[in-house]
Amino acid sequence: MGAPVVAIVDDDPRLLESLEELLESAGYGTRIFSSAGSLLRNGLSGLDLLITDIGMPGLDGFELRDLVKKARPDLPVFLITGRHEIADQDRAQGISGFFRKPFDAKALLAAIGDALRK
What we know:
- By secondary structure, this protein is α/β, with parallel strands linked by helices.
- Helices cover 37% and strands 20% of the residues.
- It is built from 4 helices and 5 strands.
- Strands 2-1-3-4-5 form a 5-stranded parallel beta sheet, with helices on both faces.
- It starts with a strand and ends with a helix.
C-alpha cells in the first residue's frame, strides 16, 4: 500500500503550495485543487483525506463537505478558514478537523495522522 493521499482544495495558490510541501515532507501523497468543482470533476476515488478551505467562490467548504459525505461517508474532512465561520457550530458537525489560518503545522499533521489511523 502506498502513502495515504490527501486532497487539498483552496482558492489561495500560496496556501495550496505550502500545504502540499508540508504534507509531502511528512510522506503523504497530495492532490491539489483550486476549487471544489475541480475536485468533484476529478473524483474522490483514491483519496484518504480531504482538506478544504471554507470560504471559496462557487461551492464553499461546507457544501463540498456535504457532497463528499454523501459519496464517501468514510472520508475524513478537515476544514480550514481565514475567517470566523467556526461560529456556525451546526454546520461544523461531521468534520474531522477544523483549523484557522495560520494553523500550526505540527497540530495539523498530528490530526491527519489520527484521522487516517481511525
